Sequence to fold (447 residues):
Amino acid sequence: MIATPVEVAARGEEGILPVIGLAALFWEVARRDLQVALRRWTDASNTALFFILVVTLFPLALSPKAETLRMIAPGVIWIAALLATLLSLNLLFRSDLEDGTLEQLLTLPYPLGWMLLAKTMAHWVITGVPVILMAPILAITYHLPAAALGVLVSSLLLGTPTLSLLGSIGAALTAGLRGAGVLLAFIVAPLMLPVLMLGARATDLALAGASATGPLYLMAALLALALSLVPVASAMAIRVSAD
Amino acid sequence: MLAVAGLTLWRGTTCLFEDLSFQVAAGTALLVEGPNGSGKTTLLRVVAGLTLPESGAVTWRGSDFRQQARDGRLRLAFSGHALALKAELSTRMNLEFFARLAGVPGKIEEILALTGLSACADLDVRVLSAGQKRRAALARVLLSKAELWLLDEPQTNLDAAGREFLEAAVRGHLARGGTAMIAAHQAVDLSGAPATRLRLGDAQ
Fold:
């Protein structure tokens, strides 16, 4: 069909996409989520409070002896971080699916995986960063020596984004389901196990005075892998969930 | 021109449409009518690329629709039942997000004034009335600079002035060579603007 003059004029005026760059797109999508989180700060504080609660329960049930606490500290903090992440994942895409934001993102001519990555990273800032900030303080109450604190924080810095990324696949798959909390945990927890083991192991090594670079490098590799592969999987899952 | 050919879609065990074909030329509107549950929303979602049909093709100017929507050759604005407004953010913040993604951050004030939302632009969407929220969703469509508007029951909750504004906006969009697909169970008065009707739900 030959385009009418009106059609051509319309195309000249409005048809060309006013592209914003990928970096700007990432920032816009992440910023919207951060703005919402600032005004609904219970999401962030709930995760942090849950993390503190789990970590403080162990000395009460096990033993308050310094050497016992020091021994279990890496494992306890990492398990608590994993549970806190699992708890927060429900919120990742659910509200966007319910209020129609995802429909809008899906109809935009921008790469969906990239936008979901921005959302996941914003989610990590809201739920993962408070955990990382809280961890050294709690670790001190577990009598963890200062030398191991740095490794603990590094392992959390490398590991919690990976947990959020892996969790985003499950969150994308279950966004449309009612009461998917436990199902979501069952889907993503097995994927998270390597991160849990490496993170706790790194801090253990530092505690024993050995070099923790091995597990930390592996965690960095897992993060790089998750950053590159997860957006593709999440995008496919969200397309199904939004249908 | 938007063309839909041989569209078949099942929802569960119900066949919503079978071998449905229609075309919408540039500068015209297609009014999708039919009783509740006849598949108006689903049809719009298929055209928007949100729902995959069992079979059939949606094409825009002769080539695959979804591909063009993804690489930006076609801009479409979809307005569904869910308004894509964050209750915690102000109307202005909500619209700024979409304005920046559409590359028109400067147009916010103009659009807010046009849709009669200037007075409540800085209020949280949570406290807006249902009609004001619908106007904000319409503002998003106006901002998008899209060639194809897909509006699902856009008159819902709008007052008489709001409906008139909506109809004027659609007429303006068509006059600029745009295309629109509107699902409505109430009459949409486009007074003379070229429009065709598609009636769903009678055949089955």
Remarks:
- Residues 1-16 of chain A have pLDDT under 50 and may be disordered.
- Chain A touches chain B through 36 residues (CB under 8 Å).
- Residues 58 and 76 of chain A are 8 Å apart (CA to CA).
